[in-house]
Each structure stands twice: as structure tokens, then as C-alpha cells.
UniProtKB/TrEMBL annotation:
Keyword Signal: yes
SUPFAM superfamilies: ClpP/crotonase
Record protein name field: Tail specific protease domain-containing protein
Swiss-Prot/TrEMBL keywords: Signal
Signal peptide as annotated in the record: 1-20
InterPro entries associated with the record: ClpP/crotonase-like_dom_sf (IPR029045), PDZ_CPAF-rel (IPR056186), S41A_metabolite_peptidase (IPR052766), Tail-specific_protease (IPR005151)
Lineage of the organism: Eukaryota, Fungi, Dikarya, Ascomycota, Pezizomycotina
Originating organism: Orbilia brochopaga
GO biological process: proteolysis
GO molecular function: serine-type peptidase activity
UniProt domain Tail specific protease: residue ranges: 411-647
CPAF-like PDZ domain mapped to chain residues: 181-295
Tree of life domain: Eukaryota
Amino acid sequence: MIVKAAAAALLGLGCTFADAVSLPLTDGRPAGPFVKRQSAPAKYTPTASDLESGCANIGRVAASFARTVEAANASSFQVDPKIAYDCLASIPLDKEPVTIFLNEIRKFVQFQSTLEYLARPPDKSGQDPMDILSGLIDIGSAVNSSSITSWYEVETRVEKLLGGCHEGHLYVAWVLPSLINFRAPFQLVSLSEDGTQLPKVYVADDVALERGRVSGTNASAITHIDGEDVVTAIDKLMYYESSQSPDVRWNAAFQTQNPPKQGDFYTRTRYPGANTFILTFENGTSTEYPYIANALNVPGGSLWSSLASGQDIWDKLINVPPRQNTGAAGKLRVRALEDNKHRIQRTPLDDAIDRLTKRQSNDNVAPPPEQLIRYDGDFPDTPGVSPFIQDINKVIGGYFMADYDDRESKTAIIDITGFSPDDPTAQFATQAVQAAVELFLEEAQRRKMERLIIDVRGNGGGFVNMGYDLYKQLFPSSEPYAGTRLRNHPASLKIAQAFTQLVDQDVINGLIRDIGGGMGENLSNAQLSRYQNAQYASLSNLNQYLNLDANGSTFRSFDDFFGPVDIYDDQFTHILTYDLNNLLAVGDLGYSITGYGDRASYATKPAPFKPENIVLVTDGTCASTCGIFAEFLRNQQKIRTVVIGGRPNRDPSVAVGGTRGAQVIQHTAHMLNFVQIIENNFAPVDAAEKAEWDQIFPRPFQMNIAEAAVNWKDNIRATDPTQTPLQFYLEAADCRLFYTKQTLVYSHELWNKVDDLAWGSEDSCAQGSLKNATVVLGDANGVPVSIGRSSTAGYNSGANGDLPQLTGDYDVDTALWIWYGVRHSFGASRGRNI
Ligand SMILES: *[C@@H]1O[C@H](CO)[C@@H](O)[C@H](O)[C@H]1NC(C)=O
Ligand SMILES: *[C@@H]1O[C@H](CO)[C@@H](O)[C@H](O)[C@H]1NC(C)=O
Ligand SMILES: *[C@@H]1O[C@H](CO)[C@@H](O)[C@H](O)[C@H]1NC(C)=O
Ligand SMILES: *[C@@H]1O[C@H](CO)[C@@H](O)[C@H](O)[C@H]1NC(C)=O
Ligand SMILES: *[C@@H]1O[C@H](CO)[C@@H](O)[C@H](O)[C@H]1NC(C)=O
Ligand SMILES: *[C@@H]1O[C@H](CO)[C@@H](O)[C@H](O)[C@H]1NC(C)=O
Ligand SMILES: *[C@@H]1O[C@H](CO)[C@@H](O)[C@H](O)[C@H]1NC(C)=O
């Protein structure tokens, strides 16, 4: 709790931190004695006896912690990082279940839309080649040959393989980090004196102590971490972050307020490789600090007394099928899902299915707008100012600069840090945001507002229809264009054929006629089952009738829809667009996007703001639905963007640096349902087909894995003849700024600065300009232009004895990284077959 409190103290407010972990620490800072030393602390390798005693040692700490007052409520207790790692590293594995698991992931990543682009990235994408299929085979062979005998190492290597893809929609959510994880003893901030001077890195608490100017005599900036220049050190530390932009990965290291984040210098998750680290400051001091480890506390339980060894953890928590456990393994999985909620996003389908299950009650009718919004309430992201209006789930806030600034300002602000509520049980989230935006824009017109700042910092996406709706409320007559496509491979083809047969045009028409806007109330069981099938078919997009072509027309045939289309030495569907008039295709029969369905009449309303009077503010973390929304604003309306943060340099930096993929699909929550619906409704014709289904269809994990996900659909700009996914273009923002102590904490200080830069007296961005925006989206033909570096090192073989090389933005000490390049250079474009 102290770490939380210390962070809040810096920010001068009592906010809570999104990813805060309660730490029963008595002091956020470690006690001494620590020697002054410059070189890196030695990497730690446990001995056989360390491995033997690690988990039992945690058990002893757990037993004494259980006798403290805090134990009643704490979610974790602190242990020495050494014994935490001793325990983790002692977890063994059985080859068979691990091999089955790796094979399951291999089947599932066939659905990763950019599989081939990742193995052989386009020039200037900034992406290093990552051949996932070969990498999984490598890990599997290492397990089979007993060169990997530790489950923790399997997890770490799979995580690095997927993390190196820098694709936020591609991940495995493990349970082990919810049992034991690591922290630095404090958080860092990256601050500039005035927003345009290059930033320096500080210990967050040091800056808080000073409460004045950052560059005063008290707070001394960090110059080195473990003897390495601080910029290089943080760059390396953040290499496996999910952003494709090194600047956005850099930002992920630091504490922020909007949205509240502790930063991944602090939140380590995995063992840092050593038990201590050394910071060197500008004032010449070097200090060694210990890392912290947290072990799961189950109040009132005796979890650790049954986990005396790594073997116990393997047997009782890991090598357990998730569907067959209700005990400690099941609880740990629930905890892991909770810990991963920032990336395991609900979809409108999950909402709709929830409502279906209570279809006999009246709960499934959306309350009137006035019950879905709140005026003048506080908002966690913006201390010091309250939004004029917000939705009840605190997703979106609408502000007027004149309300907090005494100027006669004509600037309004929309702040949206995600396109879904933090609370997964929140009801009618899309309806509530729609209502808040509508009422806010009406008030803005009443007050004759002329300009709008849209702040999407930290926005990792969410419900796609919420992003479309916000765009349509701002530009009612514009047709938002997002051309998307899926990977065409044997499993996606089979599922698409089955879903297209099962949920045909007659079924769709029947459901719309029977259900309409009634949200599934009083459905018969047969209708309910058809509706569920249709919902999953819609979510999967693997259905000819629930998609439109690039021109917004229906597909004439299955092949017109599904292809295959040969591109980049891989196969895809044709370009798909949403059928926004079809509520079933949009995902929720109870919700119309503004301008369509029940809200079709809105399409004739005038736009409340001119595009040149709108500025989009990001911190590069604009992912998924946010990326789709930003693409509408930038590509269709030429709206200017400001990006905050990034490495201390004066290069252009990306505006949208989160995944630009158009959809994520989860293995267990979604994919297994697709397969089950297909298998419930169709039977294989013969044993050969049955065998094929087993070989290509994802199946439930046989180990305790919380979840896994892939990027399902690419977003492709209409003007790009190469049809390269937007994910592989790093497109610069018009203007770049750095955080100051004021703008880091107070969003309204940042908005005032952006207002001045866009429409007032200020001119200087740290890079670029808003008044004279020169970033043209795309070249003369509208093809996107990427600021990623050219590949310099060519392709990697990654195989026997070849020195792996990173081809992206930085030369990283390759000995530190597990590397998966394209195995056979140009030849093995699809990875190695097995
Ligand atoms: C634990 O939480 C409960 C409920 O929130 C509270 O009543 C109790 O005082 C807390 N106990 C401790 C030791 O903090
Ligand atoms: C695992 O190793 C054995 C030999 O130890 C070999 O026969 C088998 O084919 C290997 N399996 C895989 C999947 O590589
Ligand atoms: C910071 O420096 C000022 C003078 O430069 C001094 O008065 C003050 O006590 C210092 N604060 C801390 C916390 O060291
Ligand atoms: C140097 O700066 C660091 C970080 O601000 C601080 O903790 C340390 O006390 C300073 N050392 C001296 C000798 O002033
Ligand atoms: C559903 O059934 C209830 C109870 O029979 C009825 O009151 C309600 O009007 C029905 N709803 C619809 C939309 O038909
Ligand atoms: C869309 O329309 C354009 C212009 O009429 C045409 O060239 C193109 O083939 C159409 N695309 C599809 C997928 O029908
Ligand atoms: C705007 O930018 C262009 C291109 O960099 C430059 O030629 C022009 O002088 C700039 N105009 C102003 C007013 O700064």
C-alpha cells in the first residue's frame, strides 16, 4: 500500500492506480547498507540447493506473514527476490503436456493475421523479424531434447517470442506472474523542464520531495542504470513491450497520471535477472537497490503450505486443465484473468450474451440517457478539474476550458482513456458513452464552442462500435472506412464455410425480424440458440453475409468474400467492411451506431466542429479501437495530432503506436466457442476429415493457462496498393511534446498548452508544428509513409551458430536476447513445416 501512497503523494492526490498491487511494505524505499559501485550487479544463477529450498523458503515467509494484521486483506506479501526466483526456477515440466500446449499455440497463431509480415517485416516498419512458427518449434525441440527443463523458462521464451512481435493483440496470459512477480522499489518519471527541452529520467519520489522545479538542486536525474547509459538501458528493458514504436515502448517505462499507470520500470512481472540494480545520478552518486518480489496471499487460506517445492507448483497449479479445476489452480487462473484485464478486453458480444442470459427480466432494456450520465463528478484521470459530463462508467469525460480557466475560451475537450469500462460488469457501456457524447456536443453547441481537443492518451481500445459511434457523432455525414481482412488458412476457411452455411441470409433476416431492438427478450430456446450462433459468427467475421466488400456492397459469392487473395507470399480474404446498418453484424441488437439503424436520421446533422478545429492528443499508446478511430480522424478528416513523450531526441514520433490491428480474438473465450458451434452443427464426413479437424482446430488448453489471443484482422488503407497492414507503418504525429511536472499530473495544463500551440500564441513543439503541420498522411498517392528505420542487417537465420542481429531501431546486446529470425532467410517464408 505504501508504494501506492507514495505515488499518489507525488501526484498530490488520492487517486488509485490502475494496476496497483497492494504491497504490505513498511517502507517504499529499501533500507541500507548499500555500497557505492558502478558496474552491474552480477546476474544471479541459483545453485541446486537454492532451487531445492526456494519454494519452502517462501512458505516460511508466508507462515509468518499469516500471523500479521495485514494478512487478512493483503493480495500479496513481499519476499526476497532471490528466493522468489529460486522457487520459480525450480518448477519442472513434463514434456508431453508442454509439447501439446506449444502445438496448441501453433494452431492458434495460424489465425494471427500478420504471421508472414512478422517473419519478414516490410522495410521501414521498425519491426524486427519474428518467425513465430519456427520459434515455437525451437522451443518445443529444446523441451523435447531436455535442454529446457524449467517451466518458467518455457513461459519466458514464449513471452519473448510473442513480445518481440510488438503486437498488443498477440499474447499468452500466464498464471505464474499472478503467483510470484517482481517490482522495482520505486517508479520513474521522464520529465522536461518546459515541454520542449529533452527530458531526463528521475526517481518519481525524488521529484515529489521537491514539489517545485524539476531541475532544481535537489532532484538529480538518473544518468546510468547498472553502469549503462540510461537511455540505452531503458530502451533495452522495454524491448518486449507491445508497441511497434520504440518511443511508445519508452513511455511504457514511466509513471503517468492520465491514465494512472505505475510504469513498467516498476512493474517487472518477470525476474529481472539479478537481485539488485544500481542507479547513477547526475550528482555523481551511485546507489544499489534491491528488487522486490511479491508472492500471492490468499487471505484465510494456506496456499503456500501445500507448495513446498517447484514440483508442487507444477502438479497443483500449472499442469492442470483449466476446465477441470475448482481449487487453488482455478482461483489462480481467475486472479490471472483479473491481473490481465488491461489486455483481455470484453467485446460487445460478451455484453449481448450477458443480456441474453437474463432475457426474461427487464434488466436488458437500456435506461434512459439521463440515467447513464453524470454531471460535474470527479474523474480519476484528471485531478484538479472535473468533466462537465461523463458516462456512469467513467469511460469518457467532456470538459470546457472556460469552466476551469478564466479565459473566454471556445475550446472543448473530450478525454477518453479506453473504449470500454474498467469494470467488466458495467452495463450498457456503449449506450452510456453514446449518451454522454451526445449531451456534451449539444452543450458545446449551446455554448458556441469552436474548437475541440480529443485526448486519447493511454487508450488501448475496447468496443469497436464505441469508436465508430464517437467518430459519427463528430462527423455525422461521413462514412467511416476501415478495410479489414483475415488470414485465409485451412482452419479459418473451414470455420467460415460452416458459419456461412449455418447463419445464412434467411437466419439473419429472421433474427432481425424477431428480435429487432428488443435485445432478445422472451426468445424461445431455438431462437436463442440461433442468436448465439449468429453472435459468434458475427464476432468471428467468418461469415459472408455479415460483412460487406470494400465498396460497401454485399458479397456475391463465398469466394468473393473469402478468397484466397495472394499477397506478400501469404493468403487472405478479400477486403471486408462493417455493415453498420446490420445490428447483428455490429454485434449488438440493442445498440445502433449514430447515423445507422434507429439513429439513421443523425446522418444529416451538421458536424459540431470543423476538422481544422480539432486536435488529437496521444501518448503513442493508441491501440486497437483507438487506432481505428484515429485512422478515421487522420485519414478521412486530416486532423492534426500531438504526441507526448518518447525517447529524449528530436526525431518525429508516432501518433498511433499501439496495435493497429482491427480485431483481437481470444483463444478460450472466443475461438473455442467458434469451434464448438461448428462441431455441434456439422460432423466430419469421414475419419480423415475428423483427423484434419483435430489437427487444425484449436482445442482447450490442457494446462492452466489464463488466456491467449491473436490479432484477427488487419486494417488496410484504401489507397495502399501493396495492402500492407497499417501495423507496419509508423506514422508521425504533427507535433511532439514532452511531459513537464505540471502536464504529467494535470491534464488541463497539457490541454492549455495544446490549445496555445494549435490556436494561440505558442509555436514551438519539441519537434514538428501544429500551426504549420507538415505531416501529410501518405505520399502523393495516399500510400502511408513510415518513419521506422530501414533494415540494415538483412534477415536473420536465427539458426545454428548464426549470430542473431536485431534489424530494428537499435543495436541491442544480442547475447541478452532470445532471438527468432526467419530460419532459412528468404526461403522459409512460412516458417518451417513439421
Ligand atoms: C479488511 O477489509 C475489511 C473490509 O474491507 C475491513 O473491514 C477490515 O478492517 C480490513 N482489515 C484490515 C486488517 O485492514
Ligand atoms: C522427441 O525426442 C525423441 C527422441 O528423444 C524423438 O524420437 C521424437 O521424435 C522427438 N519429438 C519431437 C516432437 O521432436
Ligand atoms: C532543496 O534545495 C533547497 C535549496 O536549494 C533546500 O532549501 C531544500 O531543503 C532542499 N530540499 C530537500 C528535500 O533536500
Ligand atoms: C544525488 O541525487 C540522488 C537522486 O536525487 C539523491 O538520492 C542523492 O541523495 C544525491 N546525492 C547527493 C550526495 O546529493
Ligand atoms: C416478455 O414476457 C413478459 C412476461 O410474459 C411480458 O410482460 C413482456 O411484455 C414480454 N416482452 C416482449 C418484448 O414481448
Ligand atoms: C469497387 O468499386 C471500384 C470502382 O467502381 C471497382 O473498380 C472495384 O473493383 C470495386 N471493388 C469491389 C471489391 O467490388
Ligand atoms: C511551413 O512548413 C513549410 C515546410 O516545412 C515551410 O516551407 C514553410 O515556410 C512553413 N511556414 C511557416 C509559416 O512556418
